[in-house]
Amino acid sequence: MIKKKLVLITFLFTFQLYGKQTPTPCSQDGMVCIGMDLETLKSKYPNAAFNSVAMYSYGYDSDETGIEIILNGDVYFFVNVNIKNKITGISFVSPTFEFNGISTETTIGNIFKKYPESILYIDLISDWEYIYIKEEAILLNFQTNESNRIGIYGDDIEDGTKNIKRKNAKINLISL
Fold first, then answer.
1. Among 23, 29, 31, 77, which is least packed by CB within 10 angstroms?
2. CA dihedral angle for residue 165, residue 169, residue 172, residue 176, rounded to 10 degrees
3. DSSP conformation letters of 62-122
4. pLDDT in tens, 51-87
5. What DSSP letter does each residue of 25-54 carry, written as one string?
6. Residue 2: in which H helix or E strand, if any?
7. pLDDT tens, 19-48?
């Protein structure tokens, strides 16, 4: 009897973890999503230019190339694709893309007002600062370096910080 209950509990727990479908990460308008085929993206943006650029330009630890989507001369977003031409990552540059009121026009001061438990970190590869907003499943990137840091860090920078010296600094990229 105990074994049957244990099996049932294990089944229910497993179903709770894996039985629910999670939404695919997409832009708010659904025009670009993780897992989308590159040709589908091109059909949704017929007037856009698609330029190959090094992925490290968008904070990735890679010399491979990804694709900038440019409309009217402005970079709207960047995608990296796998060998099957499926989108595996998206970095939004244009403020037209919002995630629960967060865009590249949003300041870090406003982020800490809206999400007071946020912590600012330094990416040890790109040297940029970033915040991960769990509730929105987005990564906010600030293209900084040692000379223009936003945060004030203690002895161990890997701990991150909540101490901000430039509250008006704006997000440079929002990544899914």
1. 23
2. 70
3. -SSEEEEEEETTEEEEEEEE-TTSBEEEEEE-STT--BTTB-TT-BHHHHHHH-TT--BEE
4. 999 998 998 888 899 999 999 999 999 999 998 999 9
5. PB-TTSSSBTT-BHHHHHHH-TT-EEEEEE
6. helix 2-18
7. 444 455 777 666 888 999 999 999 999 999
